[in-house]
Amino acid sequence: MATAIWALIGYWLLNNYHLLFEKRFWGIITQIAGSVVLVSALAIEVLTTKALSTKRIFGSSEFSEDGGALMTTDIYKYARHPRYVEHPFWFLGLGLLFSYPALIWFSIYLFAAFSVTAYFEERELIRRYGQQYLEYKKQVPAFFFRIKI
User: Fold this and answer.
1) What are phi and psi of 105, to 5 degrees?
2) What tens-digit pLDDT sequence spans the chain (149 residues)?
3) Domain count, the chain
4) How close are the terminal C-alpha atoms of the chain, in Å?
5) Cα-atom radius of gyration of the chain, to the nearest Å?
6) Where are the alpha helices (H) located in 22-100, listed in sequence order?
7) How would you label 70-87 residue by residue, b for 16+ Cβ within 10 Å and e otherwise?
8) What is the pLDDT of residue 147?
C-alpha cells in the first residue's frame, strides 16, 4: 500500500515538477528573510557546538562533559532540541534566499520528521532521567517556543 502511495506521489511530482523546482518568487524581502533564517541556523550551530564540544554527533543524545548528566545549560536553557530547529532552518533559509520552493517544502518535511523524532527521543530521556527530565521539560520548550492550542 505504502509503495503505491509513494508511486502516485512520485508520478504527480514528475508531472508537476515546476511546483518544486521553478523559481516561484524573488525579491529583496525573501532574500532578507532567507539571510536572517540562515544566520539563525548558523547561530544555533555555533552555540550547540560550543555546548556539546566533541559530543556533537547527529543522532546522539546530548550529554554534558561530566559523562552522562542531562544537558540543561547554554543553548539548552532555551530549547530542548535546538539541532532539530537548526537543520530545517538551513534549508528554509536557502530556499528563501535562492527562491527554490523544493527547499522550503523539504524544510517543512524535516521539521515534521524531527518533531516525531523528538517525541520518541523524549520518551527515552524520561526513562533515563525520570523526574529531572520532566521538570526540565516543564521549564524549557522543545523548539525555542511553545505552541498553545
Assistant:
1) -65, -40
2) 778 888 888 788 778 777 666 666 678 888 899 999 999 999 998 888 888 775 555 545 554 445 467 788 888 888 888 888 899 999 999 999 888 888 888 999 999 999 899 899 888 888 888 899 899 888 888 888 766 54
3) 1
4) 33
5) 18
6) 28-52, 83-98
7) bbbeebbeebbbbbbbbb
8) 62
Looking at the DSSP assignment, which residues form a beta bridge with residue 70? 63
CA distances from residue 37 to 10, 17, 91, 95, 124 in whole angstroms, order as listed: 29, 26, 9, 10, 30
Identify the bridge partners of residue 63 per DSSP, sorted by sequence position.
70
Enumerate residues 6+ apart whose C-beta is below 8 A from 122.
80, 133, 137, 142
pTM of the model: 0.72
Question: Does residue 5 sit within a domain?
Answer: no
CATH code of the domain covering residue 39: 1.20.120.1630
Residue at 118: amino acid letter: A
* Boundaries of domain holding 132: 24-139
